[in-house]
Design a protein that fits this description.
Elements (H helix, E strand, L loop, with lengths): L11 H9 L1 E5 L6 H8 L5 E8 L6 E9 L2 H10 L7 E2 L7 H10 L23 H4 L8 E6 L5 H8 L5 E8 L6 E7 L2 H11 L11 E5 L8
Antiparallel strand pairs: 1-3, 1-4, 2-3, 5-7, 5-8, 6-7
């Protein structure tokens, strides 16, 4: 991972302190700061760990920060830690944790930034416009994904696994063409709707648009 620095971003040390050494992770609510340190110490020297807690009850919100001494260590943690932690670079400290926490769940943007895509982690949090939810085509939990280029199973799985509830990703190859085709299935129709909403027309890799449509799964789509 190579991280470029804008000339307007201030001194290199300031950038390291505020942007490149602190990561934000989702964790089990039972984790202590020591548990968090133990899970992430393999990636580098940790300066501190902190867990975000409910100000009223003192209970963990299932979110935490880990700050490393070097940007390369933070980048390694993001790349190599288990995907369940949903690790991303944290916002600078001058942005409140509540604000960043809200952005982490709900700031839906149509572009990937490495492993830092802020997909909505829970479909019920996603801010669909009412007009956009009135889908005319029958919906289901299963999707068909087509592209001009062939898919790599692991990469496509990682892309669609950003939406919670992925049950399987089956990449199929046509020996007569070089196009890509895959079948994706989620545990709920809500997850499938969100995946189609975000990834239909998405360029992956850049310049190659994905076509995502619903596939009949045998269930009553009126639900």
């Amino acid at each position: 991972v190579f991280i470029a620095q804008s000339r307007a971003s201030g001194s290199h040390r300031d950038v390291e302190d505020e942007e490149l050494t602190r990561i934000f992770v989702m964790i089990p609510k039972t984790y202590t700061e020591e548990d968090l340190r133990e899970k992430f110490k393999m990636y580098g020297d940790i300066e501190y760990c902190s867990i975000i807690k409910n100000k009223t009850t003192g209970e963990s919100k299932g979110l935490g920060y880990v700050r490393y001494l070097k940007p390369s260590q933070a980048a390694r943690a993001i790349e190599e830690c288990d995907r369940s932690y949903r690790a991303i670079l944290a916002e600078p400290k001058n942005k409140s944790s509540e604000s960043f926490e809200h952005d982490y769940y709900s700031n839906m943007r149509p572009e990937l930034r490495g492993n830092t895509l802020p997909f909505c982690m829970q479909p019920e949090f996603c801010g669909f416009e009412k007009a956009e939810t009135r889908i005319q085509e029958p919906v289901s939990k299963r999707l068909s994904v087509v592209s001009r280029l062939p898919f790599i199973q692991e990469q496509l799985f990682a892309l669609f696994d950003l939406v919670p509830g992925l049950e399987y990703c089956d990449v199929q190859r046509d020996p007569h063409t070089n196009s890509g085709y895959a079948v994706i299935q989620y545990s709920t129709a809500a997850s499938a709707i969100y995946a189609k909403y975000k990834l239909h027309g998405f360029e992956y890799p850049p310049g190659n648009r994905l076509t995502v449509i619903f596939l009949e799964d045998g269930n009553d789509s009126s639900e």
